[in-house]
Design a protein that fits this description.
Elements lengths: L2 H8 L5 H21 L3 H13 L1 H15 L4 H7 L2 H24 L2 H20 L10 H18 L3 H8 L6 H25 L5 H24 L5 H18 L5 H4 L1
Helix pairs in contact: 2-3, 2-11, 3-4, 3-7, 3-12, 4-10, 4-11, 5-10, 6-8, 6-10, 7-9, 7-12, 8-9
Length: about 260
Amino acid sequence: MSIDPFIQALAADRSAGEIAVLLATAFVAGLARGFSGFGAALIFMPVASAIAGPQLAAPLILVVDLVMALPMLPAAWRRADRRDVGIMAIGALVGVPLGGAALALADPLWIRWGIVTAVACLLGLLATGWRYRGRPTPPLTIAVGLTSGFFSGSAQIGGPPIVVYWLGGTIPIATVRANIVLYFAISSLITAATYITAGLIGLPVLLLTAAAAPFYGAGIYLGSRLFGLASDRTFRRICFGLIILAAVIGLPLLDPIIR
């Protein structure tokens, strides 16, 4: 394929400004992912859904993240509590297909409202600082994995339930981050199989992936380098602010203004 047809296919039904916003959002989302191990879709999905629709935005961030996060896996495998991650993934086996079915069958406008609402609620939960302080048990871990899996399958925003659950104990922050990275690698494979079965991954997703991957990868690299250098409190506040901005921009009510 020559470059001109590629550009024409990439920009179909989208302006150059919209493509630029998508790529910039992918970079910022990668920053959050590289530093904390999660948060990319919370930033990316509200904006990308407003521009390209949730049925394209969710597979896009899934494929980009699955490919560009691969370099993070070796360190995560060494540091993670693989038993806990495996138990959590059992819940994802049930939750992800349910969420994928909702994404494939529901009205895009209602999905967008659901994404913005869910992002706001999950952000509010994280911002309060509340964490689960009880002793983890396999049934509860599976239930959290199921909940996270549903959010991942429907909108790729399954991080907050996992973070709230794992950050509540005495696990070192490096282990928590490794657990999150390893869990979402497994969850992403389950989600990819679900999306392919539902026909959600096609040429438009692959074209946008090719365009967004370098920006997202650069964000992950820079975010990973910043991990341990910036204060966790400061970076958390920055991420919260970016997520709030993304949720506001993604409001369907603002479409006449933004688009």
